[in-house]
Write a structure and sequence with these properties.
187 residues; alpha+beta; SH3 type barrels; 2 domains; 3-stranded antiparallel β-sheet; 10 strands; PhnaA_N_proteobac; YjdM_C; PhnA protein N-terminal proteobacterial domain-containing protein
């Protein structure tokens, strides 16, 4: 049986976080210890988009974690823990976190995949860079594999963050490329 069929059957064909039945897909939990169905959750489109883009968090949608945090599936527990930590500034989310119990190995998995402040891209002044920010290049940067040079003062609009906190992604002269975050200044 495929991972998708196992997760679909386990979830009862509904989102394991919010119980929606629309736009479902299998989501592999980042920093999983293995690549089995046990490291995946069934999520709806809304949950997936908010998991992948922290800027779009709808706090009220995530009140569903009040139920899903008690799931017997470690992958669901991990996702609930991570999302509650993102929402920890909300009183209700902090209350749920205080009540939540995770086995030690599940807690380690959950914490391993969370971004800490050191894991966020920062510009030359230490300012955190987020998706959609505009930056200015602070020094001439040669582009690997080409003779192109990104000139000092070049504006890069609407950047994307990457899995590597040292790099951001943006369009320069019509080409999408990776740029070292510390050679940028947020506008």
């Amino acid at each position: 049986m495929s991972i998708e069929s196992i997760v679909k059957q386990r979830s009862g064909e509904q989102c394991e976080l919010c119980t929606s039945t629309e736009g479902l897909s299998v989501y592999e939990v980042p920093a999983s210890p293995d690549a089995t169905a046990g490291s995946c959750v069934m999520v709806c489109e809304k949950c997936r988009s908010e998991i992948e883009d922290a800027e779009t968090l709808d706090q009220n949608h995530w009140r569903c974690l009040n139920d899903s945090m008690w799931s017997q599936e470690p992958a669901v527990q991990v996702m609930a823990y991570r999302m509650l930590n993102r929402l920890a500034s909300e009183t209700w989310a902090q209350d749920l976190l205080d009540m939540m119990y995770l086995e030690e190995d599940t807690r380690q998995w959950a914490e391993k995949g969370m971004l800490s402040d050191e894991d966020k891209p920062r510009d030359v002044n230490g300012v955190e860079l987020k998706k959609g920010d505009d930056v200015t290049i602070i020094k001439d940067l040669p582009v690997k594999g080409s003779s192109m040079v990104i000139k000092q003062g070049t504006a890069v609009r609407g950047i994307s963050v990457t899995d590597d906190p040292k790099h951001i992604q943006g369009k320069v002269n019509g080409q999408t490329m990776f740029i070292i975050a510390e050679y940028c200044r947020k506008k």
